[in-house]
Amino acid sequence: MLALQTAIAFFGVSCLLGISPGPDNIFVMVQSATYGKRAGMLVVLGLCTGLIGHTTAVALGLAAVFAASETAFVVLKMLGAAYLAYLAWGALHAPVTDGSGAAAPSLPPRQLYLRGVVMNLTNPKVVFFFLAFLPQFVDASRGSVALQLAQLGGIFMLSTLVTFGAVSYFAATLGEHLRSSARAQTWMNRMAGAVFAGLALKLALSQR
Predict the structure, then answer these.
(1) What's the pLDDT tens digit per position in 144-191?
(2) Number of Cβ within a 10 Å radius of residue 147
(3) Structural domain spans, the chain
């Protein structure tokens, strides 16, 4: 069982990491600005669900096995890059609304949620991050290491929900103003496509 002081400290550090620029919060920002607050939160929930998989892998020791496999790393990162490239294509070909300020044609909630899940699970960097970050807050003298890792994963998910939720809200609010102009929508779609393409390239070229 984690000490209360450890849990509080870990939550604070995790929140700071959550607001630092990175692929996941940029992803949330783009989706929220394009599709609105509700869509952004569905993506955030998907990302948090993906963290369950990473937490489980670390707690069970599977992540260490994965980290030792060059083939697994390459396959996963290329799948993630391909998915981001697909999203880039979709953003560049997204339709422009009538400029009334309404959200872009909404995607099905399940699709938005799964976008977050896939985005998180296909990022091998999260595995390495969890392997390096979570054990620093584990105290073997306080009982099951696996249980403590699971608790830390849960706290990290909570911090992600809070920080990414805030990012989603403010990005969606800005997006409402941008959607009042058809020209702004076109540029926003182009920027979203460029961001996704850039993230895809960065992931494809990433090294362990």
Answers:
(1) 888 888 999 999 999 999 999 998 998 888 777 655 556 666 776 677
(2) 14
(3) 40-96+107-205
